[in-house]
Amino acid sequence: MRKFVIASGALALLAGAPAHAASDPGERAFSYCFSCHSVEANQTEILSGPNLNGIIGRPIASKAGFEYTPELKAFGQGKAWTEALILEWITNPRMMVPGTRMERPPGPRAPAERTALIEYLKKAH
Ligand code: HEC
Predict the structure, then answer these.
(1) pTM of the model
(2) Could you tell me which residues are beta bridge partners of residue 59?
């Protein structure tokens, strides 16, 4: 199973989780995120990133109970996540917000995969 993920060594390092042989393009795109994030409204597992349910339109760094970096909180003052901002964020979080704890995920990179990811996040409410 691991081999599936190892296409990108960096992802394997980041994920350290079993590969997800998802058939849905959105789920497949989210495989770059799911080792640290859940989109479930009733998340039970403890992950290193904040819950992403309803993330599009949600004020930045606002999930109660998650300890964001001061850098992301400062950046997010008065702003909410848009589709464009999320795409910029996943391209290079530390370029957008120096000091953030989120590292650059190795994907998704292809435009179609990025669109699939946004569609997937939109559905998660
Ligand atoms: C290795 C773990 C990790 C991976 C993989 C990861 N993230 Fe994150 N993410 C984090 C952490 C940690 C934070 C909190 C950053 C901070 O406080 O500076 C975060 C924050 C975020 C936020 C801000 C949430 C909020 O409440 O404001 C979004 C959006 C996000 N990540 C999206 C993604 C997406 C989409 C992917 C996949 C393409 C992804 N992340 C992959 C760890 C990760």
Answers:
(1) 0.87
(2) 80
Tell me the pLDDT tens digit for each residue of 73-90: 999 999 999 999 999 999
Strand, coil or helix: what is 59? Answer: strand
- Whether the Cβ atoms of residue 22 and residue 39 lie closer than 8 Å to each other: no
Measured from the CA of 67, which atom of ligand 1 is nearest? 17
* Structure-derived torsion over alpha carbons of residues 94, 96, 101, 102, reported in degrees to the nearest 10: -80
Q: CB under 6 Å to ligand 1: residues?
A: 14, 32-33, 35-37, 48-50, 52, 55, 60-61, 63, 68-69, 72, 81, 86, 89-90, 100-103, 105
Residue 32 covered by a domain? yes
The answer to whether residues 83 and 69 touch, using CB atoms and an 8 Å cutoff, is: no
In this structure, is residue 58 part of a structural domain? Answer: yes
In a domain, residue 98? The reply is yes
Domain count, the chain: 1
